[in-house]
Amino acid sequence: MKFFELLQIALGNRERFSVAPTLEEWREIYDNATRQALIGVMFSGVERMPAEQRPPREMILPWFMVVSKIEKRNAMMNEACAKVTERFLRDGFDCCILKGQGVAAYYPAPLRRQSGDIDAWVLPKQRNGMDVDQCARMVTDYAHQFTPDTKASYHHVDFPAMKDVAVEIHYRPSYMFSAVANSRLQRFFYGEAGKQFLNTIEMGGGTVSVPTAEFNAVFLLSHIYRHLFEEGIGLRQLLDYYHMLVSTGLAEDKEKREAVLRQLERCGMMRIAGAVMYVLRKSFGMQERYMLVEPDERTGRFLLNEIMLTGNFGQYDERVSDATRHSAVGRNSQRLKRDMMLFRYFPGECLSEPFFRLYHWWWRRRMN
Fold first, then answer.
1. Can you tell me the distance from the alpha carbon of 209 to that of 281, in angstroms, rounded to the nearest whole number?
2. Is the pLDDT of residue 86 over 90?
3. How far apart are CA 46 and CA 3, in angstroms?
4. Which domain holds residue 141?
5. Which of 108, 249, 277, 313 is buried deepest, with most CB atoms within 10 A?
6. Does the pTM of the predicted model rise above 0.90?
């Protein structure tokens, strides 16, 4: 597929197309890049390839203009991260930037990763002796001072801290549906929180905290896993994982790799890890030395097919109607359908999901 060839050229894992694309194939490449939120990254491949294989000029100019907007948006988002971090620190909270702008630091051209909202992991600075729900109560009470009607969910609450920038405050970075796996995952997150808040980088004219590679190896995978169940996952999130592994060489550090694998096994994420490794090899051309586990071809083929069908966060899934997306009954019905489809690959999470949904309903009523 020419789309994957260009993606591998952009990543430096390939020098040129096997055969130069036709105009129709270039349009298909651009459409797929749009669906997967990879417009900026893919343009780096256009710049790297031989001149005779580049798309027509009438495609390059508008593509470049979109990339320029992505870069400007990212610069603004970086400044916003610095300001949001400063605000939380001033108001008595530790803050760590998750995903998005934080993970973009792994990219060779960070400004070309298409940004979403700001995901900030926020916990009270004075939290000794407090459990996660107590921390969540303090964080949501803080958010409700500014937006009283905002409803908290199990892992985050919306916080419109800045104009034109959506901010989600997380008290839990992610979660699992299985009660046992989720309990272990939350203990890992809470136990590692201090290290993440101390892991700082320069961003947007300020200093922000971002997760360590070992933390991201668990957290980002759990995020991919959760979105696969809820509405779908896109290649952008898989590319985040690729750059994290390649830029840090995490898998080449035996001690760190074994620590990550122990945590993934405890949380029941070894199968999704194998599926992700397959996609990273098949789509991006990732070398074996960067892989955490052996690729799982059977599950990986299914995952890649779902990624290409659904697009970024399931926004292009033609199997789901607009009426279903905008109806609470429709969304719950669609989740059950996804559970049935995913059962053959991830039975534990599928069987746990309805029970977690009931627990989440109770949790929201109590917290809100």
1. 30
2. yes
3. 12
4. 75-176+200-211
5. 277
6. yes
